[in-house]
Amino acid sequence: MLDDLAAVDWAGLDHARGSAEDVPALLRALAAGDAEALTELYDTIWHEDRLFPATVAAVPFLIRILDAPAADTAGVLELLADLAEHRPAGPSRAEQVAALVGGVAVTGTTASGEVADIAAGLPTYRRLLTDHPEAGVRAAAAHLIGALGDLAALRRAAAGDDAESVRAAAVLALAAQGADTRDRLADPAPLVRLVAAMSTGEADPAVVRILERDAPDALPLIEQLPGHVGDPLSWVLDRLRQRGDLQVRLVTGWLRHPVAAVREGAAGAARKPLTSWPPAAALLAGPLAEAVADPVDRVRHAAGERLATTGSVVAGFADRLWEVVRHSGDSWALLALGRLRDRRVDTYLAERFATGQLGEARRVLKELGPWATACRDLLAGLIETAPEYHERISLIEAAVRAGTSPALLVPVLRRQLPGQPVLVIRSLGELGPAAADAVPELTALDPGANFWVRVSTARALWRITGDPARALELLRAGGRAWQEVELMGELGPVAAEFTAELPPLFGSDDRWQALQAAVAYWRITGDAAPVVPVLVADLSCSPRGLVALACLTEIGPAAAAAGPRLRAAVDAPRRQWTFGVDGDEVWQDEEWRAACAAAVQRIAG
């Protein structure tokens, strides 16, 4: 079966980890039923959606392995389907590999110089779909055949296979090719009806009723479908991602389902519409708030966690959330109120901090700001007793953000300098002249220290003392990492001697370097014309985008060219978050829109 593996110059090919000389052993192990070999092949010949020359060379052997008695046939079919559904991202990779489906000549990959493509295995895939005794294999074969476009074989399976999971997989594969699957809405099995309804793209009431009724009933079987990833209800909603209104209707109904597992799953699945369709927050906050009173604890918790992510609309339920905090101290309720800057949270945290305990307050630290007047000075006393690393870092950042009294905070930061140098140095810089007592320690820091320490120290000394000497010395040394370019922007006109170096950086492949060069040029020269296009190119709800937006707002009317992009962001029909953790998306989007609206006003004069 694999006797001609040696005919391929594997050592002359590459994959994700370099030389592909290990691929023959992996293919032999795969044929022998070694599950780890399949995992290794995913990590090497198809890594992070990338194809490699070794991928092409491996395809004909993968097709043969489908008939190996010990092989994981379904797993190999899924690997082939993944390869068939993905394409190389860049032209250089495309030149090396080209499209697998349809065939391609790649010199040196096989003895004949020709690569047998994935479509060459269609007779094998059809046979497995028709004759294999295991439903999982037949379903995987349907998935792969769908990627290759053989509709006739799929229609036969969709109508005639005994297993509902296979019929459903065939319907999904047909839908992926744009085929009409409405005839399967009357299938006797809920899973088949469900995937057919998901595939119609229609708002017909009968289709909606199928989605509402059959998704919960099909929960155990959804996980058997090839290509399924993650929570079953979220998977259903993801297939309806362009129908935010329908997603909301389904979640609302599922939150009231008689089965607790469905209600719990609905709360988690609500993330899909919340993070994509702006009206979903106002529509789902009420049903989620109702579910907070669910008789089942895990449903209450899941609903509450999701309610806390709905953004500013949660303000309408602030009193209800406060009752949850008072009676159970649930961290999700505290977090939501903290995001709203509810003064009751400030008092509550002050009481907790006074005991020296953080408890559930850990989650709300990142929301603290100048509004937290009752608890902010207590943060300084918690820093040195907190566990090192994450918790201590969070406390330091919160203390600086909230405006903890420098008289309390600076001595603590000075003692923390050896253990958290970069964070402490930057924090002292944020405090400005109020951190003057720390200047001796900062001045004494070894100039040969690591890069981050050097840049942070130069910045801090400038912000605290107004003396640019350390910063200019660093910049004159010639490095131009984005952090150094950022420092030029901090210095403003004081860094005028470096002005000529900045425009060539506007086109840098390092987007942070390009962005900071534009910001620095504006702050040094006051000339907006060359930098506005650079800033506009980075406008997105992302860390870089926030920096670009802040600079455009500084520029004001001279940034009029950014107006259309900013107005489009304010009125965008979809959520725009691009970073962060689960739970922050709606809040990020709202803050981004508000900041863009403020920039529009500032630019308009």
TrEMBL record:
<protein>
    <recommendedName>
        <fullName>HEAT repeat protein</fullName>
    </recommendedName>
</protein>
<dbReference type="InterPro" id="IPR016024">
    <property type="entry name" value="ARM-type_fold"/>
</dbReference>
